[in-house]
Amino acid sequence: MKKLLLSLTICCAAYTMQAQDLIQNIPANSAAVVTIKGSNITDLFSVKEFENSKIGQEMVKELTRESNGDLTSLNDLGIDYNANLYYFLQAEKGVFTNYFAIPLRSKNAFENLMRQNNSSTEKIKTDGDITYFQSNYDGSTVAWNNKMILIVVSEDINNDTDYSYYSYNNEADVEEAIEEVEIEVSEVEETEVEEIEYVEEVVEVEIEDVEETVIESTEEATYSNDDYYKKREERYKRERQEREAKRIAKNQKARLRNLQKVKDFINGNHKSNNILSNKSYTASLGTQKFEAHAWAGDFMNLYQELVVTQGFSNAFGMYNVEELYRNSSVSSTLDFTNTSAVLNIDYTMSNAMAKHAKAMYNGKMNKDFYKYFNQDKMLGYMSVNASTEGLLTEYPKLMKSMFANSTNNEMATVIPLGADLLSVFLDEEAVGELVRGDMLFVVNDIAKKQVTYTTYDYDENYNRIPIEKTKEETVPDFIFMATSNGESIFNKLMNIAVKENEMTVDNGIYKFNTPRSVPVNVYAMHAKGVLFFATSKDQLLAIRNGSFKGSVSGEHKKNISKNTSAAYVNGKNIISQIPVNELPREFKRKINFLTSNTEDLLITTGKLKGNTSTTKVILNTPEEGHKNGLAYFINFIDAFID
Amino acid sequence: MSIYMFKKFFTYTLLFTSLLLCTSCFEILEEISFNKDGSGRITVTANLSKSKSKLASVMLLDSVNGYKVPSKADIDLAIKNAVDHLKKTEGISNIEKSVDYDNYIFSIACDFKSVANVNSIFKEMINNQNRREKTSFSTTNFSYNNMNHQFKRHFKYDDSIKRKFNSLKSEDKKIFNDASYTTIYRFNSSVKSVSNSGAKIAPNKKAVFMRVPALSLITGKQTLENTIQLINN
Which site among A118, A446, A563, A580 is 20 to 30 Å from A23 CA-CA? Predict the structure, then answer.
């Protein structure tokens, strides 16, 4: 009971805080919503601090220029930086509408700025407390009142026949027209020498402005009274007028639609059924400590709006999309802490997809791997914790379920049959013995290596003598490990490779005969139930005789073991290995910032929890010199702006 | 899929270290063994061995820095086309090519009846270049005057070389830092004098050697132009 009360209190607090928030105005059926959490961002980095950064100074300079000196700070613009900013997408009956909603403290400054910069053809109008202007091109609408700015851009993909205004037919007409103009010019050149200059001039002007007026130019450039030309010109004129009429009608429709959407949003017409009543959305919000949040709801709805409305029902019927993607959604948050920037992506899949994924990634990481590398100099690693047996069993099943109800009879028959055949021929368990599915690739170090190259010496009579010289190069030192019980299969394969001269063997360690140009040697070994590929023979020998001392922290062990996949890059170690002299001059100036300001990057994809897979991208940021992760990014941009 | 991911990770690790940390340079050698009757043998060698680590890594990619990376098949085809072109050129015979991908050394050699035949190999290519880029490269690279026994290496600097070079990105320009162009001309007769102060005459007087840093050629500070006066003996 206590728990329930606590949860209710947290929920109420979260939503009360949003009482005056623009989220209240976002309709429940939105397909995607992006939130920029104003107060969380300004807590981390105030508007004043931003204005003092180089990028902020540039923005203020531009703002002052655009407002003829009226606005001298970002605060003058009247935007409420402490409130939340939203983008959302609505897909309804083949109409895709993008909304950008920006909270305002006061409309005056913004309105003045718009009036100063408004094109004379896009008149600013007022409807109640809403002021707006609309694009002549596509009807997109910028509207505002005292509380918010709303930008609405929509597209109707239903029976989009008037599409041709800017499409192929028109291009063909234009090309045809240009061709005709050129013919006219050549005719004129031949017959009306005195008028050449005039005609060429007309043609050039018309070609520059081809979309709008080139067809007219043909009329002007036509010197013949021939009926054919007259009829053709009339046809062009008629078609042009038809297209223009369609374009105007489409634009008018878009203007009316967008204005209605503006009114619905600003007047709060969706408040009774807003996005906060969408469970998938509210579940993705969590504790709302993020600085940015993005959510995309049921993929199937979007897919249906896009594909089915467009009439691609065949493509829709080709795959069993419904079963695999119904109720799939994705949400992500961006969160800056004092020492990191964390991007979190949750992908919730359908029951069918989750069943396949669970079997495919039901791996168990071999803990012995941690004995075989040392994290001191380690530059990075990548791990995959899958199940080969699961992959081989589930993949044919996935293919079968994808095409089982296909409207394409051939696919519906052939693909499931092929999947069955694959299952019959493959002994999943046996293949799983060779490579179980848990694998780890570690870049141990960037090592110095003497490499040879050929150059020439000359005797005293300048006869060329090829000689071999050595130079030091920096090459990656890595080790790849995969759990395997297939030692005998491995040895058989290696022996074939040795016979084929692809490999050499020494004391049970196989060496790939890589071309001399490849700067690294790669060795292979099967020992202790692990398949190894590595650049250091010494490391493999030490692993085999048990003298290698591995050292890996608990945190890295956890990242590798507990996740389906993990990739780690030790930025600090990598930067320290880069010889500054080798870098381009302009980069050298910036290397100092990187040397003292680069930390680790970790990307993990966790195991499925329910139907949800979570991917985390964590960029650790240095504490010193940067008060938090967001400040780090702004300082980073500052360091790289010239 | 996992193996593919690892392979990609390995490729990029190798590429990252190679591109950042390996040096790149090349040398081009132009060698002519010249007979008294005006015939001879020319060998052109491109030695990229010092950059082989970088090249081996770069060739794992389709393109780098916005330039398409030729595959081995592309390079083989280009060399085959060059050989086919030589075969069709009058006065050219005994064509030999050498391709070494372990060291990235490529060379083509052929016999010629007269240096005019050698000039005609590149004539069409140079004419096309001059027409296309509005340059004024000479189509005569070599000449031999049988009367006064003078062998000439012609070279006309064109500002377009510098312009092209300056248009490259700084990291691409670095390729030329350590690069060189070497000419070696061997004669049956003794060499009396050379006009290019950078050229050296062998102690036995039968060969002339000159190495020019690529950057000096590009900027026009040095030239390949050389008049070699032979003694009629």
Answer: A118
- Cα–Cα distance, A595 to A578 (Å, whole number): 10
- Cα of B186 to nearest chain A Cα, Å: 8
Domain boundaries, chain A: 2-156+271-316, 162-248, 366-380+438-447+475-552
Question: How close B136 comes to chain A (CA, Å)?
Answer: 32
Compare CB distances from B52 to A460, A478, A517 and report the shortest one's residue.
Answer: A517
> By C-alpha distance, which of A372, A380, A377, A367 is closest to A539?
A372
Question: Does the beta-carbon distance from A455 to B20 stay under 8 Å?
Answer: no
In our burial notation (b when 16+ CB lie closer than 10 A, e otherwise), range A239-264 reads ebeebeeebeebbeebbebbbebbbe
**DSSP of A568-630, one letter per residue?**
EEEHHHHHHHS-GGGS-HHHHHHHHHHHHH--EEEEEEEPPBTTEEEEEEEEE--STT-SSHH
Whether residue B191 contacts residue B206, with contact meaning beta carbons closer than 8 Å, is answered with yes
Report the pLDDT value the prediction gives residue A210, as an integer from 0 to 100: 41
CA distance between the termini of chain B:
73
pLDDT at position B201: 95
Cβ atoms of A613 and A350 within 8 Å: the answer is no
Inter-chain touch B6–A443, beta carbons under 8 Å: no
Rounded to the nearest angstrom, the minimum Cα separation between A328 and chain B is 23
Exposure on the CB side of residue A253, measured as CA atoms within 13 A: 14
Side-chain-side CA neighbours of A390 within 13 Å: the count stands at 17
DSSP letter for each residue of A158-172: TT-GGGGGGSHHHHH
- pLDDT tier at A392, thresholds 50, 70, 90: confident
Q: A interface mutation test: which of B49, B174, B187 has the most A CBs within 10 A?
A: B49
On chain B, the residues whose CB falls within 8 A of the CB of A458 are: 184, 209
Q: A517–B9: do the CB atoms touch at under 8 Å?
A: no
Token look-up 């203007």 returns A255
Please tell me the distance from the alpha carbon of residue A308 to that of residue A628, in angstroms, as a whole number.
46
| A285-337 confidence digits (pLDDT tens) | 888 788 999 999 877 777 777 665 555 554 555 566 677 777 788 999 999 88
Phi, psi (5° rounding) for residue B112?
-135, 150
Q: Which two tokens stand for residue A346?
A: 């949750």
Q: What is the DSSP letter of A275?
A: G
Instruction: Give dist(CA A137, CA A349) in Å, integer.
Output: 39
ipTM greater than 0.90 = no
Q: Is A518 on the interface with B (CB under 8 A)?
A: yes
Which three-class secondary structure string do you get for A203-221? HHHHHHCHHHHHHHHHHHH
Judge whether B121 and B108 are in contact, CB under 8 Å.
no
